[in-house]
Amino acid sequence: MLGRIARNRDLAEAETMFARQLDVAAGHGLRLWATRATHELGTLDLMRANKTDRLARARELAAEGGDLATAATIDLQLGGSGWLALDAGAWLAAALRCQPTAQRFHLDLLLAKALLLEAAAHAFAGRRAAMELAIAQAERIGRPEADLEAAAWARRG
Description:
Elements: H1 2-7, H2 11-27, H3 31-49, H4 53-64, H5 68-84, H6 88-104, H7 108-124, H8 128-141, H9 146-156
């Protein structure tokens, strides 16, 4: 928690905290906590420079350890990285990887965001019908968050 709070004001301080978490977890064989620390460190890399090596490693660890909700969350982050890099193929692949797990575990907000990320990839590639379908699927989930509605309308523009 302290690392996440620090992340809002000082990425270096957050890095120190999450690196310590990783050291302690690895030193005591706590796989889940090592995965979570790697995820947080990867998130810092993404925030700093849109680098995804540690984030991809965290996704592997989460999948290997059966932490599928974390793996799906990381897929959404990797999709966002592809978006920033204007790599529609990477962001579409990540959005599509996220969806089955989000659906299986009833992670509706994550699923809606993944569908809107998919819609954005289709929009970027000029596939309007596929974009509209993904938006309609996201809207059927029924999440009332204003940012989701705004994102859906932005894709239609």
